[in-house]
Amino acid sequence: MELCRLNGLKEPDFYDDGRYFKIVIYKTIENKKIFNNAISNNNAGIVPEGAGKMPEKLEMDKKIYDYLIGNEKITRKEVEILLNIKERRARDILKMYVDKGYLKKIGKGKNTYYILNANM
Question: What domains, with CATH codes, occur in the chain?
Answer without folding.
Answer: 2-43 (no CATH), 59-116 (1.10.10.10)
